[in-house]
Design goal:
The protein has 11 helices and no strands. With 275 residues, the chain is mainly alpha-helical. Helix 3 packs parallel to helix 6, helix 3 crosses helix 9 and helix 6 runs antiparallel to helix 9.
Length: 275
C-alpha cells in the first residue's frame, strides 16, 4: 500500500516542482533582461564607444533624474512635468472612452448608424494623430489644451472599433428577449448590450490608452509648454542627453504602468465573466 501511495505522490511532487521552476524562471527573466541592458550600456560608456555628449553613462542619467526632481528644468521639476502629461492624458483619454464606447456600440447594433457614420469614421481613423497638431495649434494655441486633441485622436479609434466588434458578437435573441419582456432601449443598452460587450470594450480601452500616451508625447515634442515631451525637446536643444534619456525613461515607466493597470482591469473582467 505504501508503495502504491508513493507512486501517486511522486508525480504530484514532480509537477509542483516543475510549475515552481517555470514560475521562478519567468519571474527572473525580466530582471535578467533589464540587468543585461544596463550592463551593456555601462560597458559601452566605460569603453568610450561613444562620447559622453552622445551617450551618457547610466550613473550620469540617474544623477540627472535625481537632480531633475529637485531643481526645475524648463520651468518645472521632473514630477511636475510628469503630472502635467498625465493630466492632459487623463482628460483626453476619458473623453475618448466616454464618446468612443457608446459610438461603437451604437454602430454595432444599428445598421442605419453604421451606414451613415462608417465612411466618416474610416477616414478619421486612418489620419495619424500627429497630423492633428496644426489644428490643435489653430484652436488651442500652444498651451495646456493643445495636445489634448492629438491624444483624443489616438485613443478614440481603438475604443470605437472594439466596442463595435463586441456589439456585433452579441446574439440577437438576447436583445429580442429583453425587448419582449418590456425592456426599453436604455435598459437594453445598459443591462444587455454593455455587459455582454464589456470584455471587448476593455481590450479596446487598453489599446486606446497606449496609443493615447504615445500621441501625447508626440504632440508635446512639437507643441506645448509643459510635460515630458516638452522637457525632452528643451534638453535636446541644449545638448543635454542625460536629461533627454531621463525623460525617455520616465515616459517608458509611466506608459508601462498605464498598460499594466489596464491589463489588470482586463484580466479582472475576464475572470468575472468566466464565472
Amino acid at each position: 500500500m505504501a508503495s502504491i501511495g508513493s507512486r501517486h505522490v511522486a508525480p504530484h511532487r514532480a509537477s509542483v516542482l516543475g510549475i515552481t521552476t517555470v514560475a521562478g524562471i519567468r519571474g527572473a527573466m525580466p530582471v535578467l533582461g533589464i540587468a543585461t541592458f544596463f550592463g551593456a550600456w555601462t560597458l559601452a560608456t566605460s569603453l568610450k564607444l561613444a562620447p559622453p555628449t552622445f551617450l551618457p553613462s547610466p550613473l550620469a542619467v540617474l544623477h540627472s533624474m535625481v537632480e531633475l526632481t529637485q531643481i526645475p528644468y524648463a520651468g518645472s521639476t521632473l514630477q511636475q512635468h510628469l503630472m502635467a502629461s498625465l493630466e492632459k492624458f487623463g482628460i483626453s483619454f476619458a473623453a475618448a472612452v466616454l464618446l468612443g464606447v457608446p459610438f461603437g456600440l451604437i454602430m454595432g447594433r444599428s445598421n442605419l448608424m453604421k451606414w451613415a457614420l462608417s465612411p466618416l469614421f474610416e477616414g478619421f481613423r486612418f489620419v495619424p494623430p500627429i497630423a492633428w497638431v496644426p489644428f490643435a495649434i489653430f484652436w488651442f494655441g500652444t498651451g495646456f489644451l493643445a495636445p489634448t486633441l492629438v491624444i483624443f485622436a489616438g485613443a478614440f479609434a481603438p475604443c470605437v472599433i472594439n466596442s463595435y466588434r463586441g456589439a456585433q458578437l452579441i446574439e440577437r435573441h438576447l436583445i429580442e428577449a429583453s425587448q419582449t419582456l418590456g425592456a426599453g432601449r436604455w435598459r437594453t443598452f445598459t443591462e444587455i448590450l454593455l455587459p455582454a460587450a464589456l470584455t471587448h470594450i476593455v481590450a479596446g480601452v487598453r489599446v486606446g490608452a497606449g496609443f493615447g500616451w504615445q500621441s501625447l508625447i508626440g504632440a508635446e515634442l512639437i507643441v506645448g509648454s509643459t510635460g515630458l515631451g516638452y522637457m525632452i525637446v528643451q534638453a535636446g536643444s541644449n545638448l543635454q542627453p542625460a536629461i533627454v534619456i531621463s525623460g525617455m525613461i520616465t515616459i517608458g515607466i509611466a506608459g508601462a504602468s498605464i498598460d499594466y493597470l489596464m491589463r489588470a482591469i482586463q484580466h479582472g473582467m475576464r475572470r468575472k465573466w468566466a464565472h
